[in-house]
Fold this protein.
Amino acid sequence: MSEIFLQDIHQPLTSLPGVGPRSRALLKHLVGEQVSDLLYHFPTKVVERKYFPSIRELIRCFATLPEGTTVTLCVHIDGFPETKHRGGPIRVRASDSTGYVDLAFFNSNPSYLAKKVIPGTTVLVTGRAAVYGGHLQISHPDYIGPTSTLKDFQGFEGVYPLTTGLSNQVVARVLSTALKQISEPLEWLSPEMIRKKNWPSWKEALNLLHNPQSPQDITPQSPARLRLAYDEILAQQLRLLLAREEPHLRQGRICRPTGKFTQLFLAALPFELTEAQNLACSEVRRDMGTDKRMLRLLQGDVGSGKTVVAFLSILLALEAGTQAAFLVPTEILAQQHFKTLSSWCAPLGIEIDLLTGGNNQAKARRILKEKTRNGEVQILVGTHALLEDDVEFKDLGLVVIDEQHRFGVAQRLKLMEKGPEAHILIMTATPIPRTLQLAAFGDMDISHIREKPKNRKPITTRILPIDRMEDVTEALRRPLDRSEKIYWVCSLVEESEVLDITAAEERCTFLRSIFGEEKVVLVHGRMKAQEKQEVMDKFIHSSAQILVATTVIEVGVDVKEATLMIIENAERFGLSQLHQLRGRIGRGDLASSCLLLYASPLTPVARQRLSIMRETEDGFRISEEDLKIRGAGDLLGVHQSGYDIYKLADLFEHESLLTMAQEEARFIVQKDPTLASERGQALRILLQIFYATKSLKYLLAG
Ligand code: ADP
Ligand code: MG
């Protein structure tokens, strides 16, 4: 029974009657390839279905109708289809007791039409009406059928997100076919839950959302949506937990550090660790000391000093005689971490190396991989290149992942396989609100670094309209005189990187004309890694003091002398993003400031958002506000990262579901870790709706 169900929902869309190659391509673009993708494509709006007027009423109200309104008319077919002139449409005259309407068909087959519109019959016609030469016309009616079908044209209708070339009608029609084809699967939710919440079954819920009886039916709190949202969250939480229960993923190696590196390193460190850093370190040490694999998220606001904690964790692994890998999302960041860590490694006599996509010659890469394989390289820093199959470690004891939200769960699993018992430490600078934490990292233990190093001065934030450019350039003088460094971030025009670059180039030219050629450098996303690196080096080490950048100033770049951050079009950024950018300054003990420039006029909401930036430097508060305003997907940078969490569930609306689902998932995995029970079988179906069969085999194997 469940087998048949799964086959149905994983069928390609072409298996549905009425889906030809053309609509298949469009649907694929819109939703995906399988029936299940289509079923989870929901209306985002509900409109009163069709306007059912008399012809006279329609003509009278025509001017006031919203454009493109679909109307339904009940009409008598008066005349025979006939061609008026070559190339013109075939017109058929129809009427009711109040007036007449022309049905127009372009390029239609006359004999086909003759069967469809039969003179003397009364039919229902639906379509978009237009007025031509003073009388009413419907071109290519969507539907012509017997009057007994009227009930199908009343009530409400869901409006789907669409793509060019695909009408709402087609999507609705294909969906209705799909829904008919799908059988009700075994219920995977507990009967108590269903009863207590009074939720519909899975299929009933789908039916309701696709055939809403009122606008309320699709709101986030409607029982149907709650049910499906709960399904989705439960599936995701289960998947995270199951991955963790996998024997080969769960087993960790007991790490017995000798303390030799740690002591030397701490003695030479020019600052004291904060209490929060110390605590995080001891949590890591405790985790690594057990035979359960560590999976710990190190969460700390920008500038809170996560890198030192990561390095101290690495030292534990090295002291125990194993290797460590440090995975970072971008080349610049990899370079930077490599530099920092190298300077720490040198006095300790530790071998560290760097593997990125672009920077190594083939031969050098081969040698590097060989050294990694035979254990000569003790720490390997790198980008995605680390995930390649031929990167093998002799004995990997710890994996550190920086800025995790850019990597998906799949990549994490891949790294976990490289060191069968390696512990894992994931660092993120995005201060993730609790809700989101549970969702994205529900399976991890968490260390927070809330406190910043003591030497930090508060950052002054100001909000200015961009027309006050003179004030802005004036603000640059002081830090320039003091040999400090300045970031200037140009507008984010999300749709067009090219426009971004143009804006940045223009700004660079402008600033050079004021402060001199030497003082200003430019970095943007289209540059090669090598070029970017050269610019960054120049900014850090030469007399260049202003770095103009598109948003490529990577999270994590650490330049202590940077004291001024200018962000153009700040109103277009998300608050968390602004916070990340602002976190590039105030990293040493110099006083710093941030200028948020906006293009007038500023909407009240935008003004309110920006003033939050002025009020607080607390990343948690900022991200919470951001979540309220923008929704969860944006916060994690879905667009840049491809890391989307949910299709249907909304973390803000469904927070309570999340907590419930997490508890239930834990309970399930504890009782039935292989999903072997009857309910387990049903839960497998749930998982398969959301996750590719392949990854599940992997999760549930053994
Ligand atoms: P992030 O958490 O954003 O990755 P980093 O690890 O880059 O922060 O640290 C930011 C800066 O603060 C670095 O230059 C680092 O050397 C410095 N730092 C880290 N811990 C301390 C501390 N306890 N006291 C003073 N400075 C510190
Ligand atoms: Mg960092």
Q: What stands out?
A: The longest strand covers residues 122-132. The radius of gyration is 31 Å. DSSP finds 28 helices and 22 strands in the chain. Confidence is low (pLDDT under 50) at residues 632-644.
